[in-house]
Write a structure and sequence with these properties.
This protein starts with a helix and ends with a helix. α4 links the parallel β3 (101-105) and β4. It has 304 residues and is an alpha/beta fold. The protein is globular, with a radius of gyration of 19 Å. The chain contains ten helices and ten strands. α2 runs parallel beside α3 (87-96) and α3 (87-96) packs parallel to α4 (113-122). Helices cover 35% and strands 16% of the residues. Strands 7-6-5-4-3-2-1-8-9-10 form a ten-stranded mixed β-sheet. The structure holds iron/sulfur cluster.
């Protein structure tokens, strides 16, 4: 047996350990279908769902594997996750298995009280709305999608109208960096429970180029100082190119928490880094998690 085959067999044989280190959060792109057309969007957007996206059965199996991988927070995203007709079933199953489950939305006319209420009844924990600036000029200008800001504010009101907690997710790029302080105020005024700040841009990546490392680092330090002084949690995801303090395995630290992204076709990568880790159609999720926690030498074996 080759070294690679032996090592993979050894990895596959590892039993899940209660309390074993796992991802803090899993972001699952349940579909790439979306009616909007933000420019540039890093998702290759489709009008209709891809025939290759994980089926309902595969999705339920993935959720079951997440339960055995430390019960991470599950964030359903897209595309527009509301374009997936079985989203309520996915939410209900994750909720029943004890996973805190949220969805990430860019507001659209699809964000109706009826649909949001259905998801709340299924066990949805919160909706995180993508808001990249405190005004339509900044948000719509960044996305080059007129109307997006208004739909998003409308969606926030819909969720709050039925008592569903909200969060805000903001992409920090050269186009939005000057609005970060104003956004911090706005997140508080909106009554959001958390603020996900993603450097480099999610889902719109690298619009207007990269922040310089000193600018990136200064903004992260300012946000970290804000933590605890505001009545919402701030979660920071640095850009892949930003090298901040890291822990021994080189991947997970307060600056670089272990967050995994599952694409609509099951491919897994480390969130916001592009580091490929395998595919849930090929490997059990706990094996992928172990691969994520391993240093580069093991990664080379898995990927060779
Ligand atoms: S950024 Fe989001 S809302 Fe805009 S086109 Fe891409 S997936 Fe759709």
């Amino acid at each position: 047996m080759s070294y690679k085959a032996a090592r993979l067999a050894q990895l596959a044989a590892v039993k899940e350990q209660p309390g074993a280190p796992g991802p803090e959060r899993v972001i699952w792109q349940i579909t790439r279908a979306c009616d909007l057309c933000c420019q540039p969007c890093r998702t290759r957007i489709l009008d209709t769902p891809s025939p290759n996206e994980l089926s309902l059965e595969e999705g339920l199996n993935l959720i079951e594997q997440l339960r055995r991988s430390g019960q991470p927070e599950l964030q359903l995203t897209g595309g527009d996750p509301l374009k997936r007709t079985d989203i309520a079933l996915l939410v209900m199953y994750a909720h029943r298995l004890g996973l805190p489950v949220g969805i990430t939305l860019s507001g659209t006319p699809r964000t109706t009280p009826r649909l949001v209420g259905l998801l709340q009844a299924a066990g949805l924990n919160h909706i995180t709305f993508c808001l990249d600036g405190p005004t339509a000029d900044v948000h719509d200008g960044f996305r080059r999608q007129p109307g997006s800001y208004g739909w998003t504010i409308d969606g926030i009101r819909v969720a709050q109208g039925i008592g569903l907690p909200i969060g805000i997710e903001t992409s920090v790029t050269p186009a939005t960096i000057d609005s970060v302080d104003a956004m911090a105020d706005m997140v508080g005024r909106l009554g959001a429970r958390h603020w996900q700040v993603t450097f480099g841009g999610r889902p719109v990546r690298n619009a207007g180029g990269k922040l310089s490392p000193p600018t990136h680092g200064d903004a992260m330090e300012r946000l970290a100082a804000l933590q605890g002084t505001v009545n919402y949690r701030i979660r920071i995801t640095p850009a892949a190119y930003f090298v901040g303090p890291r822990q021994g395995n080189g991947h997970a630290s307060p600056w670089h928490p272990l967050e995994l992204f599952v694409a609509d076709n099951g491919a897994v990568e480390q969130w916001n880094s592009g580091r490929s880790l395998g595919n849930v159609r090929v490997d059990p999720f706990p094996v992928i998690v172990r691969r994520a926690l391993q240093p580069a030498a093991e990664e080379a074996v898995a990927g060779s």
